[in-house]
Amino acid sequence: MKKLIAGLAAALCLVSGATANTGGPAWDKFPAEKLQSTASLQNGAKLFVNYCLNCHAAAFMRYNRLTEIGLTEEQIRTNLLFAGDKVGDLMKVSMDARQAKDWFGATPPDLTLVARSRAGSQGTGADYLYTYLRGFYRDETKATGWNNTVFPSVAMPHVLWELQGEQVLGADHALTLAKPGLLDAKAYDNAVGDLVAYLQWMGEPVQFQRTKLGIAVLAFLLVLTFFAYRLNAAFWKDVK
Protein backbone atom coordinates (compact mmCIF):
# COMPACT_ATOMS: atom_id res chain seq x y z
CA MET A 1 0.00 0.00 0.00
CA LYS A 2 2.85 2.38 0.85
CA LYS A 3 4.42 1.70 -2.54
CA LEU A 4 1.10 2.38 -4.28
CA ILE A 5 0.65 5.68 -2.46
CA ALA A 6 4.17 6.69 -3.42
CA GLY A 7 3.43 5.88 -7.04
CA LEU A 8 0.20 7.89 -7.00
CA ALA A 9 2.08 10.82 -5.53
CA ALA A 10 4.66 10.52 -8.27
CA ALA A 11 1.93 10.84 -10.85
CA LEU A 12 0.75 14.10 -9.34
CA CYS A 13 4.36 15.24 -9.15
CA LEU A 14 5.12 14.98 -12.83
CA VAL A 15 1.68 15.92 -14.10
CA SER A 16 2.08 19.18 -12.20
CA GLY A 17 5.70 19.54 -13.23
CA ALA A 18 4.70 19.40 -16.88
CA THR A 19 3.25 22.89 -16.62
CA ALA A 20 5.89 24.33 -14.31
CA ASN A 21 7.28 27.68 -15.35
CA THR A 22 10.97 28.35 -15.81
CA GLY A 23 11.06 31.17 -13.26
CA GLY A 24 11.93 30.93 -9.59
CA PRO A 25 15.30 29.99 -8.15
CA ALA A 26 18.21 28.96 -10.30
CA TRP A 27 18.33 25.29 -11.13
CA ASP A 28 21.06 23.24 -9.52
CA LYS A 29 23.51 21.48 -11.79
CA PHE A 30 22.79 17.81 -12.26
CA PRO A 31 25.93 15.70 -11.60
CA ALA A 32 26.41 14.58 -15.20
CA GLU A 33 29.18 12.12 -14.27
CA LYS A 34 26.44 9.80 -13.02
CA LEU A 35 25.53 9.12 -16.63
CA GLN A 36 28.85 7.30 -16.97
CA SER A 37 28.27 5.14 -13.86
CA THR A 38 26.45 1.84 -14.31
CA ALA A 39 25.92 1.67 -10.53
CA SER A 40 24.11 5.03 -10.58
CA LEU A 41 21.99 4.05 -13.56
CA GLN A 42 21.06 0.73 -11.96
CA ASN A 43 20.06 2.40 -8.70
CA GLY A 44 18.11 4.98 -10.67
CA ALA A 45 16.25 2.19 -12.47
CA LYS A 46 15.34 0.66 -9.11
CA LEU A 47 14.05 4.00 -7.79
CA PHE A 48 12.12 4.58 -11.00
CA VAL A 49 10.35 1.21 -10.81
CA ASN A 50 9.54 1.60 -7.10
CA TYR A 51 8.41 5.22 -7.04
CA CYS A 52 7.28 6.15 -10.56
CA LEU A 53 6.21 3.13 -12.57
CA ASN A 54 3.05 2.45 -10.58
CA CYS A 55 1.36 5.33 -12.39
CA HIS A 56 3.71 6.57 -15.09
CA ALA A 57 4.49 4.43 -18.09
CA ALA A 58 7.73 4.45 -20.03
CA ALA A 59 6.04 2.94 -23.04
CA PHE A 60 9.00 3.36 -25.40
CA MET A 61 11.37 1.40 -23.15
CA ARG A 62 11.53 -2.37 -22.70
CA TYR A 63 12.75 -3.96 -19.50
CA ASN A 64 15.36 -5.98 -21.33
CA ARG A 65 17.11 -2.79 -22.49
CA LEU A 66 18.30 -2.46 -18.90
CA THR A 67 20.89 -5.07 -19.81
CA GLU A 68 22.65 -2.13 -21.49
CA ILE A 69 23.34 -0.63 -18.05
CA GLY A 70 24.81 -3.85 -16.74
CA LEU A 71 21.81 -5.74 -15.37
CA THR A 72 21.22 -9.36 -16.26
CA GLU A 73 17.80 -10.60 -17.32
CA GLU A 74 17.62 -12.59 -14.10
CA GLN A 75 18.30 -9.45 -12.02
CA ILE A 76 15.62 -7.59 -13.96
CA ARG A 77 13.15 -10.44 -13.52
CA THR A 78 13.86 -10.80 -9.79
CA ASN A 79 14.14 -7.17 -8.74
CA LEU A 80 12.32 -4.92 -11.20
CA LEU A 81 9.37 -6.76 -12.73
CA PHE A 82 5.85 -6.62 -11.39
CA ALA A 83 3.80 -9.79 -11.22
CA GLY A 84 2.81 -10.92 -14.68
CA ASP A 85 5.35 -8.80 -16.54
CA LYS A 86 7.98 -10.33 -18.80
CA VAL A 87 11.54 -9.18 -19.43
CA GLY A 88 10.72 -8.31 -23.03
CA ASP A 89 7.65 -6.22 -22.13
CA LEU A 90 7.36 -2.47 -22.48
CA MET A 91 7.34 -0.47 -19.23
CA LYS A 92 3.61 0.09 -19.07
CA VAL A 93 1.27 0.54 -16.12
CA SER A 94 -1.89 -1.37 -15.32
CA MET A 95 -3.76 1.68 -14.04
CA ASP A 96 -6.79 2.52 -16.17
CA ALA A 97 -6.35 5.82 -18.04
CA ARG A 98 -9.92 6.90 -17.31
CA GLN A 99 -9.46 6.32 -13.59
CA ALA A 100 -6.18 8.18 -13.66
CA LYS A 101 -7.88 11.16 -15.28
CA ASP A 102 -10.60 11.09 -12.61
CA TRP A 103 -8.04 10.96 -9.80
CA PHE A 104 -5.47 13.44 -11.09
CA GLY A 105 -7.39 15.55 -13.57
CA ALA A 106 -5.17 14.26 -16.40
CA THR A 107 -3.59 10.99 -17.43
CA PRO A 108 -0.10 10.72 -15.90
CA PRO A 109 2.37 11.43 -18.71
CA ASP A 110 4.74 8.90 -20.14
CA LEU A 111 8.21 9.40 -18.69
CA THR A 112 10.37 7.95 -21.44
CA LEU A 113 11.38 11.40 -22.67
CA VAL A 114 10.67 13.47 -19.55
CA ALA A 115 14.29 14.55 -19.03
CA ARG A 116 14.62 15.70 -22.62
CA SER A 117 11.33 17.62 -22.52
CA ARG A 118 12.08 19.74 -19.44
CA ALA A 119 15.01 21.77 -20.77
CA GLY A 120 14.65 25.52 -20.29
CA SER A 121 16.53 28.77 -20.22
CA GLN A 122 18.12 27.85 -16.88
CA GLY A 123 19.58 24.52 -17.91
CA THR A 124 18.90 21.03 -19.14
CA GLY A 125 15.91 18.86 -18.36
CA ALA A 126 18.13 16.87 -16.02
CA ASP A 127 18.99 20.08 -14.13
CA TYR A 128 15.29 20.85 -13.77
CA LEU A 129 14.38 17.40 -12.47
CA TYR A 130 17.37 17.31 -10.11
CA THR A 131 16.37 20.65 -8.58
CA TYR A 132 12.66 19.91 -8.57
CA LEU A 133 12.92 16.60 -6.73
CA ARG A 134 15.08 18.24 -4.05
CA GLY A 135 12.95 21.36 -3.69
CA PHE A 136 9.96 20.14 -1.70
CA TYR A 137 9.08 21.60 1.67
CA ARG A 138 6.23 21.42 4.17
CA ASP A 139 3.44 23.91 3.59
CA GLU A 140 0.30 23.30 5.62
CA THR A 141 -1.59 25.93 3.61
CA LYS A 142 -1.63 23.53 0.67
CA ALA A 143 -4.07 20.66 0.30
CA THR A 144 -1.28 18.12 0.04
CA GLY A 145 0.78 19.66 2.83
CA TRP A 146 3.70 20.21 0.41
CA ASN A 147 5.07 22.94 -1.82
CA ASN A 148 8.09 23.29 -4.08
CA THR A 149 10.66 26.03 -4.61
CA VAL A 150 10.96 25.33 -8.32
CA PHE A 151 7.22 25.14 -8.89
CA PRO A 152 5.31 27.18 -6.29
CA SER A 153 1.86 25.87 -5.38
CA VAL A 154 2.64 22.51 -6.94
CA ALA A 155 -0.37 20.20 -6.68
CA MET A 156 1.56 17.19 -5.44
CA PRO A 157 2.75 15.57 -2.25
CA HIS A 158 6.44 14.80 -1.92
CA VAL A 159 6.83 11.32 -3.39
CA LEU A 160 10.29 10.79 -1.86
CA TRP A 161 9.60 12.35 1.54
CA GLU A 162 10.38 9.17 3.45
CA LEU A 163 13.87 9.20 1.98
CA GLN A 164 14.56 12.92 2.30
CA GLY A 165 12.57 13.84 5.39
CA GLU A 166 10.69 17.10 5.76
CA GLN A 167 12.14 20.46 4.75
CA VAL A 168 10.81 23.89 5.72
CA LEU A 169 11.23 27.17 3.88
CA GLY A 170 12.72 29.97 5.93
CA ALA A 171 12.09 33.70 5.72
CA ASP A 172 15.28 33.97 3.66
CA HIS A 173 13.81 31.44 1.18
CA ALA A 174 16.40 28.87 2.19
CA LEU A 175 15.40 25.25 2.76
CA THR A 176 16.18 23.64 6.12
CA LEU A 177 15.71 20.00 7.07
CA ALA A 178 13.27 19.96 9.98
CA LYS A 179 12.66 16.21 10.21
CA PRO A 180 15.26 13.69 9.00
CA GLY A 181 14.35 10.96 6.57
CA LEU A 182 15.84 7.54 5.94
CA LEU A 183 18.77 9.16 4.11
CA ASP A 184 20.98 12.05 5.11
CA ALA A 185 21.15 15.09 2.83
CA LYS A 186 24.17 13.87 0.87
CA ALA A 187 22.74 10.38 0.38
CA TYR A 188 19.38 11.77 -0.71
CA ASP A 189 20.98 14.09 -3.25
CA ASN A 190 22.94 11.11 -4.51
CA ALA A 191 19.76 9.03 -4.85
CA VAL A 192 17.97 11.80 -6.74
CA GLY A 193 21.00 12.14 -8.99
CA ASP A 194 20.79 8.42 -9.74
CA LEU A 195 17.08 8.65 -10.55
CA VAL A 196 17.57 11.64 -12.84
CA ALA A 197 20.53 9.92 -14.51
CA TYR A 198 18.30 6.97 -15.32
CA LEU A 199 15.56 9.24 -16.67
CA GLN A 200 18.14 11.00 -18.82
CA TRP A 201 19.55 7.69 -20.08
CA MET A 202 16.09 6.30 -20.77
CA GLY A 203 15.33 9.21 -23.10
CA GLU A 204 18.22 8.22 -25.36
CA PRO A 205 19.87 4.90 -24.44
CA VAL A 206 22.23 5.05 -27.42
CA GLN A 207 23.63 8.47 -26.56
CA PHE A 208 26.93 7.10 -25.30
CA GLN A 209 27.41 4.81 -28.29
CA ARG A 210 26.55 7.76 -30.54
CA THR A 211 29.13 9.95 -28.81
CA LYS A 212 31.83 7.28 -29.04
CA LEU A 213 31.01 6.66 -32.69
CA GLY A 214 31.17 10.38 -33.39
CA ILE A 215 34.61 10.65 -31.78
CA ALA A 216 35.84 7.65 -33.78
CA VAL A 217 34.55 9.17 -37.03
CA LEU A 218 36.24 12.50 -36.30
CA ALA A 219 39.51 10.71 -35.49
CA PHE A 220 39.28 8.77 -38.76
CA LEU A 221 38.62 11.95 -40.73
CA LEU A 222 41.59 13.64 -39.05
CA VAL A 223 43.91 10.78 -40.04
CA LEU A 224 42.43 10.74 -43.55
CA THR A 225 42.99 14.49 -43.85
CA PHE A 226 46.65 14.08 -42.87
CA PHE A 227 47.26 11.41 -45.51
CA ALA A 228 45.34 13.41 -48.13
CA TYR A 229 47.49 16.44 -47.36
CA ARG A 230 50.71 14.42 -47.66
CA LEU A 231 49.49 12.83 -50.91
CA ASN A 232 48.63 16.23 -52.33
CA ALA A 233 52.06 17.59 -51.37
CA ALA A 234 53.81 14.61 -52.99
CA PHE A 235 51.73 14.97 -56.17
CA TRP A 236 52.49 18.66 -56.67
CA LYS A 237 56.12 18.79 -55.46
CA ASP A 238 57.56 18.51 -59.01
CA VAL A 239 55.05 20.87 -60.55
CA LYS A 240 56.44 24.34 -61.08
TrEMBL record:
GO terms for cellular component: membrane. The keyword Transport does not apply. Heme c binds at C52, C55, H56. Its cofactor is heme c. It comes from the Bacteria. The keyword ATP-binding does not apply. Residues 1-20 form the signal peptide. Residues 39-203 form the Cytochrome c domain. This is Cytochrome c1. The lineage of its organism: Bacteria, Pseudomonadati, Pseudomonadota, Betaproteobacteria, Burkholderiales.
